Amino acid sequence: MDSKITISGWMQKPRAQECCKVKEEKVDVKMKQPQGGGVVEEHFSSAKDFYVSKEKTPRYSRRKGIKGVTGILNRGQKIKGTVVLMRKNVLDFNTITSGGVGGLIGTGLNVIGSTVDGLTAFLGRSVSLQLISATKADENGKGKVGKDTFLEGIIVSLPTLGAGESAFSVHFEWDDSMGIPGAFYIKNYMQVEFYLKSLTLEDVPNQGTIHFVCNSWIYNSKLYNKKERIFFANKTYLPSETPAPLVKYREEELKNLRGDGTGERKEWERIYDYDVYNDLGNPDSGEKYARPILGGSSIHPYPRRGRTGRYPTRKDPNCEKPGEVYVPRDENFGHLKSSDFLTYGIKSLSQYVLPAFQSAFDLNLTPNEFDSFQDVRDLYEGGIKLPTDVISTISPLPVIKELFRTDGEQVLKFPPPHIIKVSKSAWMTDEEFAREMIAGVNPCLIRGLQEFPPKSNLDPTIYGDQTSKITAEVLDLDGCTLDEALANRRLFILDYHDVFIPYLRRINQTSAKAYATRTILFLRDNGTLKPVAIELSLPHPDGDQSGAVSQVILPATEGVESTIWLLAKAYVVVNDSCYHQLMSHWLNTHAVVEPFVIATNRQLSVLHPIHKLLSPHYRDTMNINALARQSLINAEGIIEQTFLPSKYSVEMSSAVYKNWVFPDQALPADLIKRGVAVVDSSFPHGVQLLIEDYPYAVDGLEIWAAIKSWVEDYVSLYYAADNDVKSDSELQNWWKEVVEVGHGDLKDKPWWPKLQSREELIETCTIIIWTASALHAAVNFGQYPYGGFILNRPTLSRRLLPQQGSAEYDEMVKSHQKAYLRTITPKYQTLVDLSVIEILSRHASDEVYLGERDNPHWTSDSRALQAFQKFGNKLKQIEAKFGERNNDASLGNRIGPVQLPYTLLHPTGEEGLTFRGIPNSISI
Hints:
The protein is α+β, with helices and mostly antiparallel strands.
């Protein structure tokens, strides 16, 4: 029962102590002032705290004349809780850069807080919480809402706290009439936001511990327009199984996340909506910056991005003004993690470093050509000398200090790429050139050659006859005839002809000069690939309908022919570098996943099992994509400055998206479609690889199978039959929106799964997880290890093959190095390339890898936790197997001439340029 004591007079020390003796432990006190002073409720963890607070709080006791105070000491049931949160920190790029470069000196990652944002600000009445019942409803059918309670003392000894986190105790009034807590409201009365990580309730009757995994930014409650912030316990419910008192809360939260599709989005909002890519250009700045809108048309189809609602440009109302890009607040980086540090490095590069580099080259303070291969290697061995003003501009940037090594001198030094750590010249071999097609940073393009000569899929009424000019007679097939090689499936092709031909005439009118390439490869008896011919094609001078002008280059080891062969391989790699960055990396992972992120948050409640399954694989993706639109793939951005297609870069990826097929993103389906594997149930994973030692495919199939097995185990917990999938309203709305809106330009394609069975749901979720984790790891984290040495993976070609009789040809005869260096990426663009891909290739210190979760309490379902543990154990076994393969001398493609073991699909990794590790999501 409650004990009520009326206190007459002021709150004097003896009377206060006497009052609190009624209940020595935790007490609630209601202070009522009859003269119109109102009612103030407060909770105190002890009589001592109660007395001290009264003594020190003027509104209660120190102002004379406040009489008739009534103290109510509540002996009702209490639920103890622990709230873990993180204060806002300095890692906000706008804050960092507001004072210019000088303001960056010494800031690093130190947390700075105002008096408002100090720990003491969380005490008292700054943050309130209310529990919501999952089992007892009010008169409106919604779960009963408990009384407001406030954060109390800080807990300093919690062993699970991470960097920058603080824990607070909290006590809720709760009794049997309220049932079991299933959610809670939270209100922030401060002007500054904070990051709410979790709430844990202890000793809940008949429940024990209840966990709420929050991971969300909480702003001042007035900003939410009476839409209170709600969080649910880590229970899992299909929509039809949701406890009745929580149903409306579940629906309201999804409605809040969807928004109404109007207005400019604000920083604190959590609204997920769709838009086309209409913010890459800025026509108001001139024709040079105008870019076509991608998405919403059959000419330029594209996946959708997150809507920002920014104002349109003046010259084109369909285009959005560039600027700070909104992403839903919980998708934003922002709390003491090194991935923030690395990603904001891209902004630092864009805004400070690159202009500094440009000034040095514009003023001819340093030459823009490498003079020798050693000149390139000096980037890592001795550094590149830059003017003092350039070094002084970039040196104070804390982000850049992590990437560049200046040591206070006038030299800029990059870390040595893995590909030249053992051998400085093995990259030049034909074997390494071919090996990187199956074990490099872009190992998912090589195809089996099933007809000869290779044909084109381009429309002949527009492009004429684009059939290859390579003939059987010129191919060295180690004694095999062409028919034998085809029949035994030993011929393969890396084909960039159709991708580049439609754009090549325009590309070659810029400063770039390039070919559309086809490369034929032969599978040797020892399991390695041998390039046997490269075709270089140009648009016909008489017009596209006349076909292409092509020349065939054959391998050579001596004389000027060997230099021509080396240049031919460079043209192939330039095409491969561009396709890799724009299609394999950006389009096929970053861009295609974003609609799934948006749809999942709009249509699947956090209580939904599929939301819990997929959400870790979306971490930070919308934010890194927004940053890419702002600094990397935008008009005159880093990609356009340093890659061959320049202003046509992202437009080309739109043309490739026309042929994107969701089911073919499954690794087995992809391998079969590319003709590098055939269906065979006698082989592991149901496919036989035609290149047995294909590191990406061999390791990838193991990872794919492990992911699919985990998804199957998990999905089976919640869907006993196909009809359960069909009748899941949230799931069906989710998939309908993915197909019809998120990937709406392809919505009429017949290949979309109907999502009417458990099998379709398992395959769909496996594809999403594979794409966001393993596929992205395979095409991203090898960028610097392979491409950090620009000779191995140039991104530009600046001139065509020299013709006999020209000065360039004579130079080529005299020096293969000068001919090569004058053709590929020059020095300035190399510095830009290396700076960016070093950031993109790094793992963050707080990376969450495949088979891991950032919170062990992500679900309360012990069956799901056991299945996930099984998944993690399987990945450990797989990783050990990968290590054994890399030590097998008979598998030449796993190491290659450069002595670089294939580790990109090892599940675990470490911070930095490690060349291994599969993060859960596309987070960089």
